[in-house]
Amino acid sequence: MNTLHNAPQLDWHLLHVFLAVVDSGSLSAAARSLRSSQPTLSRQIGELEALLGVALFERVARGLKLTVAGEALLPALRQMQLGANALAIAAQGQTQALAGTVRITASEMTACYILPPILARIRAQYPEIALELVVSNTVENLLERQADIAIRHTRPSQGGLIAKQVGEFALGLFAHRDYLQQVGGQIDITRIADYVWIGEDSADILLRRFQQAGFAIERDFFAIRCDNHIVAWQMALAGMGIGNATLVTASQFPQMQRIWGETPIPGMPVWLTAHRELRQSARIRAVFDALATELGQIS
Questions:
Q1: Can you give the residue ranges of the HTH lysR-type domain (predicted)?
Q2: Strands 57-60 and 63-66
Q3: pLDDT in tens, 142-179
Q4: DSSP state of 55
Q5: Which among 54, 97, 109, 291 is placed 20 to 30 Å from 227, CA to CA?
Q6: pLDDT confidence of residue 130
Q7: Selection from 76, 82, 20 nearest residue 45 by Cα
Q8: Residue 228 to residues 31, 60, 90, 188, 256: CA-CA distances in angstroms?
């Protein structure tokens, strides 16, 4: 018997839906990510199960769980997904048309306080290019096409990427002038424990920067903690304590005064990354180069 001849003809779209449900953990979450409806996805999963002749999911208290058959199918589908993504990236990388979309990912503070005027100038220069901005402090996976260009503050470790350090954002410690008045007009570096500091909750980036600068502190040194950097900065703007920001960000707020102007808190390196194939795309190359120039002028 020719088993290849009798194998079911699989619809890649149905397989894509299956992977979305696996990754999301529920039909409702997958529907949101795919911009579809829960009944539609339920019907499509049913079609795939009928085509394969096996049940792929079972309902549990918190959503859906893969059956044994579903677990057996998953590794092969992951390989198909990688192949499809690689094919799409290679095809996209060959286009020389400027018209189209470029998807950029950047951290919260960079996206909010640094990128808007830069992106405005890029749009003015290339009005035919649509820009999508993914705001996230996590490292998006460019190999899975979650973004075309990433602006990050650590060197990427993934292979298959172009990485270029375009500069470094200088950091400073800042307090609202009202807070400084409350504590006597200035901050005494020998009494740092006497002041209110705004830091991170579960993340430890700022904590490590303080430690690198020679301050022997732990997490509870920060009396106010928040992992959302924009919110933490807003609390500093409200006069709640001493916060940190890049100099280019703080320069937009004249009510914020820098303390210890030369305190050696390490700056943030600025890395631009893109998939190697995508650098052959004219529009992605244009945005990449424009970002490199603009960000390289900030220190």
A1: 10-67
A2: antiparallel
A3: 555 678 899 988 887 766 778 889 999 998 999 999 99
A4: -
A5: 291
A6: 95
A7: 20
A8: 27, 33, 36, 27, 19
